[in-house]
Amino acid sequence: MADISEYYRAGGERTRLTTGGGLLEALRTRDILTRYLPPAPARILDVGGATGAYAGWLADAGHTVHLVDPIAGHVAAAAELPGVTAAVGDARALTEPDDSADAVLLLGPLYHLLDRADRITAWREAARVVRPGGVVVAATISRFASMHDGFVKGFYDDPRFLPIVERALATGVHRNTEPGRTWFTDAYFHRPEEPAAEAREAGLDVTTVAAVEGSLWQLPDLDRILADPERTALLLDLLRRVEHEPSLHGTSSHLVTVATRP
């Protein structure tokens, strides 16, 4: 976990959700949350919520939000957001009481738990702290994301990148230990069928699996489209219509899995 912590302490992805594919991810994730979270006011536990990109937005919408993250700097930044409390913690060993949240977000932890047993533990902890009938919403990165990203961002110009992609395609494990690396840190990249299977093993009922960006995160002129409100509205509407289409799930950079506690 040292490489992961170093990546985020150095400000990794601090502005990722503000432009291009990252902005599309944020807009689509908010759209999905709006439709599947309970209405405000609800108590939401944002596990691995970083500096509060979603926690602050949810608090503004009238929810009570507590954020948990392993990086102290993230926690300090999130705690400054109006209506958000925050604490250092681990998705695999939450200090929250049983049945204490109306909804639990796992919009980051499953990225960085490379062992399946650890991911199941995180799912089970979310299931423990959410109330019966409550919602758990988890984000995962596609098995094929780095393969596409290498072309979109020109990463294959560096010969060290291809072996990282080849390992991720074969095993799901993305290891980035190269000196001076600018690529994403160590992570696990899920196949489309894996998140739902993990949630079910943790005792949750899966409601849906939705493609977040579909294949459109790869568009070279995405910033121009997202700068146009009418085009953005059209883009979001069309992605919403096809988000449950299984044949498109592997093309999306991220998937969101929504589950409920029986």
Automatic annotation (TrEMBL):
Any Pfam family matching the protein: Methyltransf_25
InterPro entries hit by this protein: Methyltransf_25, SAM-dependent_MTases_sf
Residue span, Methyltransferase domain: 44-134
Record protein name field: Methyltransferase domain-containing protein
Source organism of the structure: Actinocatenispora rupis
